[in-house]
């Protein structure tokens, strides 16, 4: 999960770049080439209430100076927060392109001591079914891809998870122990991955196509481990409109097979999904979402965006039309922190068709 930031962020640069902060007019800000960005943060989301912490990002290029045109930028990001709901979240994420993009390596390590909300499983669960539960977890993931030509990557993906100390509300269905994973879960899975990537920029694309398809199998390594499979396809198209505006479209399909723990099911909502829904408000074996976002220039280092999306869940795609589709819409502001890499602070307000809403703020675009 990427953490959402709110209210204020303070951007510091490397020592050579720090002197430029004396020139605070917008033209000077646009010319900055910030690479190291530590930011004390205050934020609020539907899932966490108010949170306080630190986000540190480092952007770099692995290629020699004369080869950087052939290699997109990489980044390392660490985030740690504590919320008013007594949640602790810490995560380290790296996205690295080796010289000439011969390899793409993404790693994730995350720890949570988290208070969450469970509404049941299915596309038609009611608000009165909600119950709080607390848990701790460690998640690690690795995507290792090899470039076969100018735009295709193939490789493998791994994911492990350990969820423990699950403490459900004593009056809810999780306390009954009948929901898979309600008493904790462990798993380790692996599988193939293929990617078509023609985006001009990995952080805020303005043109190109992207398609990522992966499958992963989690064997039952020990008697108390879960065994299930995952298939996911993520397709995106970016089109320039005029000189500075961008129309971005995304379609996501996810299917789990077998008895997956309830936190491994496809979940709707959050800052990168249908913004406005509590993340996990709906969860099921199968999920499809379609998003569209129009990003436009406002003035100097300020950009804007309007977005909308629809989605549905079921045990399999044949169930998508058995209940009403879900939808959300909203608008946001982007503040440009690095013109060359197009690194922005994103502030979004999303609202669902049924009246839920949320504010999300983070570095880089939702997709």
What's the structural blueprint in terms of helices and strands?
Layout lengths: L5 E3 L6 H4 L7 H5 L5 E10 L3 E12 L13 E10 L4 E10 L5 E16 L12 E17 L4 E17 L16 E13 L10 E11 L9 E14 L3 E14 L7 E2 L15 E2 L1 E14 L2 E13 L11 E13 L4 E10 L4 E7 L4
Antiparallel strand pairs: 1-2, 2-3, 3-4, 4-5, 5-6, 6-7, 7-8, 8-9, 9-10, 10-11, 11-12, 12-15, 13-14, 15-16, 16-17, 17-18, 18-19
Describe this structure in words.
With 367 residues, this protein is mainly β. The chain has a single domain (6-363), classed as Porin, CATH 2.40.160. 2% of the residues lie in helices and 57% in strands. The protein contains 2 helices and 19 strands. It has helices at 15-18, 26-30; strands at residues 6-8, 36-45, 49-60, 74-83, 88-97, 103-118, 131-147, 152-168, 185-197, 208-218, 228-241, 245-258, 266-267, 283-284, 286-299, 302-314, 326-338, 343-352, 357-363. The strands form 2 sheets. The protein has a 17-stranded antiparallel sheet, with no helix packed on it. A hairpin with a 5-residue loop joins strand 5 (88-97) and strand 6. The longest helix has 5 residues, at 26-30. The chain is globular and about 60 Å long. It starts with 5 loop residues before the first strand and ends with a strand.
């Amino acid at each position: 999960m990427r953490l959402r930031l709110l209210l204020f962020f303070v951007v510091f640069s490397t020592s050579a770049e720090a002197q430029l902060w004396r020139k605070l007019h917008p033209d000077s800000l646009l010319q900055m080439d910030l690479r190291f960005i530590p930011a004390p943060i205050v934020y609020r989301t539907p899932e966490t209430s108010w949170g306080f912490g630190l986000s540190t990002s480092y952007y770099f290029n692995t290629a020699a100076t004369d080869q950087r045109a052939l290699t997109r930028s990489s980044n390392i990001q660490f985030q740690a927060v504590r919320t008013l709901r007594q949640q602790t979240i810490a995560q380290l994420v790296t996205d690295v392109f080796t010289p000439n993009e011969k390899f793409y390596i993404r790693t994730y390590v995350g720890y949570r001591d988290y208070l969450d909300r469970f509404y049941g499983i299915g596309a038609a669960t009611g608000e009165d079914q909600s119950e709080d539960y607390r848990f701790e977890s460690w998640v690690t993931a690795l995507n290792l891809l090899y470039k076969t030509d100018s735009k295709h990557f193939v490789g493998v993906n791994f994911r492990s998870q350990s969820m423990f100390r699950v403490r459900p509300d004593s009056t809810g269905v999780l306390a009954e122990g009948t929901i898979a994973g309600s008493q904790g879960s462990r798993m380790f899975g692996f599988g193939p991955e293929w990617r078509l990537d023609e985006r001009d920029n990995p952080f805020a694309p303005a043109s190109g196509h992207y398609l990522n398809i992966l499958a992963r199998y989690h064997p039952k390594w020990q008697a108390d481990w879960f065994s299930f499979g995952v298939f996911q396809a993520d397709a995106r198209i970016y089109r320039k409109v005029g000189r500075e505006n961008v129309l971005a479209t995304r379609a996501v399909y996810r299917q789990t097979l077998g008895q997956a723990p309830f936190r491994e099911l496809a979940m709707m909502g959050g800052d990168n999904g249908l913004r406005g829904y509590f993340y996990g408000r709906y969860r099921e074996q199968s999920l499809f979402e379609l998003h569209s976002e129009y990003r436009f220039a406002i003035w100097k280092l300020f950009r804007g965006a309007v977005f909308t999306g629809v989605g549905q869940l079921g045990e399999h795609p044949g169930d998508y039309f058995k209940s009403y589709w879900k939808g959300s819409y909203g608008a946001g502001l982007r503040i440009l922190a690095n013109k060359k890499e197009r690194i922005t602070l994103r502030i979004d307000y999303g609202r669902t068709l049924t009246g839920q809403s949320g504010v999300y703020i983070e570095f880089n675009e939702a997709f």
